[in-house]
Amino acid sequence: MGNRGMEDLIPLINKLQDAFSSIGQSCNLDLPQIAVVGGQSAGKSSVLENFVGRDFLPRGSGIVTRRPLILQLVHNKAEYAEFLHCKGKKFVDFDEVRMEIEAETDRITGSNKGISPIPINLRVYSPHVLNLTLIDLPGMTKVAVGDQPVDIEHQIRDMLLQFITKESCLILAVTPANTDLANSDALKIAKEVDPQGLRTIGVITKLDLMDEGTDARDILENKLLPLRRGYIGVVNRSQKDIDGRKDIRAALAAERKFFLSHPSYRHLADRMGTPHLQKTLNQQLTNHIRDTLPGLRSKLQSQLLSLEKEVEEYKNFRPDDPTRKTKALLQMVQQFGVDFEKRIEGSGDQVDTKELSGGAKINRIFHERFPFELVKIVFDEKELRKEISHAIKNVHGVRTGLFTPDLAFEAIVKKQIVKLKEPCIKCIDLVIQELINTVRDCTNKLNSYPRLREETERIVSTYVREREGKTKDQILLLIDIELSYINTNHEDFIGFANIDFRRLDDGVSPGCANSSAQQRNIHANKKRPMPNQGEILVIRKGWLTINNISIMKGGSKEYWFVLTAESLSWYKDEEEKEKKYMLPLDNLKIRDVEKGFMSTKHIFAIFNTEQRNVYKDLRQIELACESQDDVDSWKASFLRAGVYPEKDQTEPEDAAPADTFSMDPQLERQVETIRNLVDSYIGIVNKTIRDLMPKTIMHLMINSAKDFIHSELLAYLYSSGDQNSLMEESADQAQRRDEMLRMYHALKEALTIIGDISTSTVSVPVPPPVNDSWMQVEASRRPPGAPRPTIIRPAEPSLLD
């Protein structure tokens, strides 16, 4: 092989296979290896036993090999075997090796004939072997037997492909000589993954069982159905020999005698037989490893670099070192505080692109959900006007009042302000829930120390709950402050003096109050945001599904919606070239719609308050979103456009019974005046509460929680229990650390060994291509005794020299 270093290649790969198999990483490196494939009873196990010179593989009818067996042969003076799953135990009796393989197979697959892709690692040390690594795979079958799954053929095929698809895997295709080579399952599957034949080596077994008068000379001479790496013939022990426990060394001598004495194989005897096959595989695997070394080295280096940062803290790791525990605790708490602040304040690293969370979700609660909850406080118009009427009469008492009483106005306003408490409390609850979720997400990084994670989550969550009470008290105090003094001198309040002038500007006679519906529509239109001259204010764009289009017209369909200050338009797609419809916002309102039994989407509807069709023959358009958060967000956007939710009790606005109110025109005028004043003042209070709610929550709850985490959390952790118990590692973390260190040292050792090997070693090149068109077109069976076809002999494969 040219130098001593090259002889270390196969043991090196064996070490890597052991190291990476034990930590579940072997699939990532694609280590060079030889996979043995073939049909059931093709003689694969016998070939491997001949290599070792011992009977150690399970025997029987049907499928015997049910898990991949990674067989590592190591040239050594002493003879024994070791299993990776039985570390430290040496098997000298090879009958025990067989029983251990059977027991380990049954442990994973059960006692039936099922299979599993989890490999068994067996290393055999012997003076009779050359360094070699092979994988014995289950034999291909066509029909399920016993209680095997019906798709056993596909399961085995998929397992074989897992191994032989890798470019680093040589394929040892075993085919019995007493079957038609053109129908070989092994060669067929090898051709699928290795069409150029660069990795396939043919092995012909059972040459001694061919019909009299026939031979496999053309196959072994690589004339019939040629392979680039050629074929090697072997003669295994018969079942009678195995049952009679014929010595394998005697069988190898009989094999040698068979090739020397057979007239058709005599000239090939030096290139046939198990010893030559073992030598050839050793040479080819060694050269194959040499060829894959550059790629293997780069993969090892990249994996080593990826582990460097994590392993750095573990290199001098001592689990019981109090200094390490103190340092780790400080780092964990500090990192928790940084993560919490980033999730609240926002950060450019580790951005969640799937859903809103942390500060972004709290922002939505402040500026979309809370305003919507305020607007949802529905004033029952009929009931409100009745209350105003009663209040005016009760203030006047026995007298008939000539002027609109401000005490009635204050009584009605205070009753409406009290209704703000419920949405305010609900807003705080939503923020609390999101804070708790944020704390839980941040503590996930502390999973290495379960007790620390639990204590941190408990302490911070308890603190947040304590601040919840103070925040709610403060918000309720703000509402009580609003109740304590009704400031009718507020600059935004229309006032008693201005109400008549405003009504005149709106075209309403001060002598007779107009209908409340007209007043509300005028008020709503005034509140609608007005864009600058010549431009349209776009409030929102996004995908929505129109849910109530009839099935005859194509059923529900998704469109691109654009909401402006004046209209709602929808287009075919986001390019906004093909407009489907534009709906003016005048007289529109929103109502909730229950989603259907089979529907997964959340639905709301837009309708016209004047009972007109909104779109074609539809009285309302049902719009569907993927989540309730999307629905709430769209509703908040419609609020900005001046489209409000419908009232819970929908009755015609002008259908109030005659006995509800006095027919006294003066009283009607006073009711209408106070009604407009209430609207104006409640608008001021809503604006104030909408401004103060986020500020109060941020100050008393969120900023306070951040300060607590940075300044007091560590002290609470120290006082909550013993530091040793807090910093006790989880079993998973300890195992992960050990595996990572093993992986790291295995990678370093592998790179060291690879670095010592001269890659300039002269090795035999891959054989030239041969005519392998037979693999694409299935060859017809040649009957016994038929004349051999005249085929030009290709150059002998140099690897078999």
TrEMBL record:
Q: Identify the residues that the record assigns to the PH domain, covering every copy.
A: 537-643
Domain Dynamin-type G span(s) in chain numbering? 28-294
Keyword Glycosyltransferase (UniProt)? no
Task: Name the EC number(s).
Answer: 3.6.5.5
Compartments where located = Cell projection, Phagocytic cup; Cell projection, Podosome; Cell projection, Uropodium; Cytoplasm, Cytoskeleton, Microtubule organizing center, Centrosome, Centriole
Which processes are annotated in GO (biological process)?
phagocytosis; receptor internalization; synaptic vesicle budding from presynaptic endocytic zone membrane
Domain called GED: residue spans: 671-762
The molecular function GO annotations come to: GTP binding; GTPase activity; microtubule binding
Where are the residues of the annotated region Disordered?
776-801
- Its top-level enzyme class, in one word, is hydrolase
Primary place of residence? other
Bilayer topology: Peripheral membrane protein
| InterPro entries to which the protein is assigned, alphabetical | Dynamin, Dynamin_GTPase, Dynamin_GTPase_CS, Dynamin_N, Dynamin_stalk, G_DYNAMIN_dom, GED, GED_dom
Record's GO cellular component terms: centriole; clathrin-coated pit; clathrin-coated vesicle; microtubule; midbody; neuron projection; phagocytic cup; phagocytic vesicle membrane
Sorted UniProt keywords: Acetylation, Cell junction, Cell projection, Coated pit, Cytoplasm, Cytoplasmic vesicle, Cytoskeleton, Endocytosis, Endosome, GTP-binding, Hydrolase, Membrane, Microtubule, Motor protein, Nucleotide-binding, Phagocytosis, Phosphoprotein, Synapse, Synaptosome
So what does this thing catalyse?
GTP + H2O = GDP + phosphate + H(+)
Family membership: Belongs to the TRAFAC class dynamin-like GTPase superfamily. Dynamin/Fzo/YdjA family.
Protein name as it appears in the record: Dynamin-2
Gene encoding this chain?
Answer: dnm2a
